[in-house]
Amino acid sequence: MRKSLWINFGFQAGALLVALVLTTLILVAVGAPPFQAYASILRGAFGSANNLESLLISWSPLLLTTAGVLITFSAGLWNIGVEGQMVLGAIFATWLLRSLQESGTPAGLIIALGIVAGAFGGALWAGLAGALKTFGGVNEIFGGLGLNFVSTALTIYLVFGPWKRPGTGSMSGTQPFDRVLWLPTLPDMQLSPWALGISLLAVFGVYILLRGTHFGLRLKAVGKNMKAAFLLGVPTWQYNMFAFLLCGALAGVAGAIQVTSVYHRLLPNISNGYGFLGLLVAMLINYQAIWAAPVAFFFASLNTGSVQLQLLYQLDSSFSGVLQSFLVLLVLLGEGARQRFLKSNWGPRWTRTPS
Amino acid sequence: MDTNALLTGLAGVLAAAAPVLFAVIGETITERAGIINLSMNGTVLLAAVGSFAVAYETDSLVLGLLMGALIGALVALIVAFSSITLRQSQVAVGFVLALACRDLAYFLGVPYMNQPGPRLPGWAIPGLRDVPVLGQLFFRQDILTYLSYVLIFLAWLWIFRTRPGLMLRGIGERPAAAFVRGADVNRLRYLYTVLGGAIIGIAGPAYSLNIKGGWMGTQSGLDGIGWIALAITIFGGWNPLRAALGAYLFALLQWLGLVLQSRLPGIPSQVLQVAPFPLMILTLLLVNVGNAEWVERTLAGLPEGTRRIIARLLRSLRASPPASLGVPFEQE
Asked: Engineering a disulfide at A266: which of A94, B145, B308, B313 sits with its beta carbon 3.0 to 4.6 angstroms away?
């Protein structure tokens, strides 16, 4: 048992090492000094209070999308549509803020309602993907992808059409909201403790939901073996649908936070890839909610850190995406190799399971 | 719009569909063997950059094309290795590869951005080019577009009219039965995944060395093509002929979007460019809804005449995936 733990560790460390070697080779290939590049990513993430602040700001939407897809993954669903669900959250939040901003409603209430509207918008979009799967037989991967593109088009239409700035519409988005409609921040900072608090609470809630509740157990049963769960009396499609709605709501809150606390307006590409990144984080942690917060933190640090690469070495900031996806890919391959190793006859005798 | 402009436009549609066709036919062959290659969106981008870079440095279009196929084949090899040999989820690995290749393409592509490079010349086929209407439509294109026509029929013939093609369908439908018949299921799956990947890879140079004539980073407008191609594969019911129809419909819609745009200046261009996506969802719905249980129940309650018409309509649209798509084969 202890030895197989060491083997697990060995394969995982090996996978991370191979991933690092590969990304280093890529850096060498484009003629960048690899070690300075990694150092500048670290500095970009943790080097100054400002950098750390933007790291914490991007941590929060990633936490929310990760928490969301952990639910759908538990139900055995591939919610690729999480990206569009986040966008719909942003659209709904913007809509609410726009319609109430001159109504005299207390600002705090408007912001709170905006976040609720975001959750509703995300859930609506996820519900659409879920309904397409449940009643139309459209695989959630394709339904979700299609809806992602539709949500982008919707944003662009709103930004250039009905919600355009006075004058002409532009890719920089709608007219920014008044300062009072910003989610309250720490003094002299951009960071909102509310955004971070909501996100951490969401991750904790999902951890409890999946780990310690009857609902979570049955959801996982549906994900592991739909037929068996159905035969045991679990209402499977309702559970699937519920997983979609819950994930969509969390992604929608992420979108609403982008609007109320980061950009203060709606702009194209408001989801910033956090939906897909959440899927990557969930895969990397092997769908264990307990690791969600630290790994999402690590991924967010790569994201903010790689901005430095562009400034210092004129390297494209997509390098963070390369790093992240190579890590996940190699960990998946490493896991497969480990299972092969433990099963095969060429593994050492003591690793075989005693009969 | 006069006839000449219309024909030119439609000929453009045939050319614009060529890269999508490569991707769709490659994926169809892969999925026929029982493997899903979800990495397509990244593969096409990486192949586009890689082939352009090679063609740019060596000034050889042939090497560029080969590079595209090689990249596609290598990515497919990772999919095959992880799913067949390592028994990992094809969807997970494919999705991660889709992101990895896309980001890699953007990262490595920076030095080649907006560089003028070699481009496939057009080549009107002597004799055929002068056939009225058809000549202008089909035979004043470039070599990759001609290749795409040939590929449709070649793939169809191979899958449905040859013995190895029968085996290909067998390993995707009932691998155990194919194994009993003497097929080395996993080796064949490797082979067809890599072959399909190479064909998918051609879609890259079909963009960067032909239609787009270069690499424009995130402005290339290629992000998303691979996902559409996946949807068209399903729409095509894993049949190259029907898949080709899907690819041409898609290209036609995009062209119509461009034409409409000049008529409707109020709508931003980006909105019309995504018009195919809601339609894609709708077609997927039509293709799949016939498989849903509640539809059959509802149909049973309808009057006989209506029921028969709707049932026939749904059956003609319906497509079912290869029975063992995504299911690993254990030879025991």
From this structure: A94
Determine the CATH number of domain A49-314: 1.10.3470
Q: Which of A153, A319, A328 is closest, CB to CB, to B96?
A: A328
Closest residue to B95, CB basis, from A149, A279, A340: A279
Q: Where are the domains of chain B?
A: 3-240
Q: Which residues pair with B113 in a beta bridge?
A: B215
Note the pTM of the prediction, 2 decimals: 0.91
CA B322 from chain centre, in angstroms, equals: 17
- Complex confidence, ipTM: 0.90
Is the separation of the CB atoms in B291 and B264 below 8 Å?
A: no
Q: How many residues does chain B have?
A: 332
DSSP helix/strand/coil, A64: helix
List chain A residues with CB under 8 Å of B292: 135-137
According to CATH, where is 1.10.3470 located in chain A?
49-314
Residues of B in contact with A340 (CB under 8 A): 85-87
**A167 torsion bin: left (phi>0), alpha (psi -120 to 50), beta (else):** left
Residue B131 in contact with partner chain A when CB distance is under 8 A: no
Centre a 10 Å sphere on the Cβ of residue B142 and count the other Cβ atoms it contains.
19
Q: Using the beta-carbon criterion (under 8 Å), do B277 and A149 form an inter-chain contact?
A: yes
Asked if B43 and B226 count as a contact pair (C-beta separation under 8 A), the reply is: yes
Over the stretch A92-147, which tens digit does the pLDDT of each residue have? Answer: 999 999 999 888 889 999 999 999 999 999 999 999 999 998 888 888 888 898 89
Searching chain B, which residue's CA lies closest to the CA of residue A159? B268
Residue B146 · residue B236 · CB < 8 Å: no
Per the CB < 8 A criterion, the answer to whether A279 and A114 are in contact is no
Show the tokens assigned to B150. 């040939």
What phi and psi, each to the nearest 5 degrees, are found at residue A316? -65, 140
Query: Do A256 and A249 form a contact (C-beta atoms < 8 A)?
Result: no
Q: Does the distance separating the beta carbons of B274 and A169 come in below 8 Å? A: no
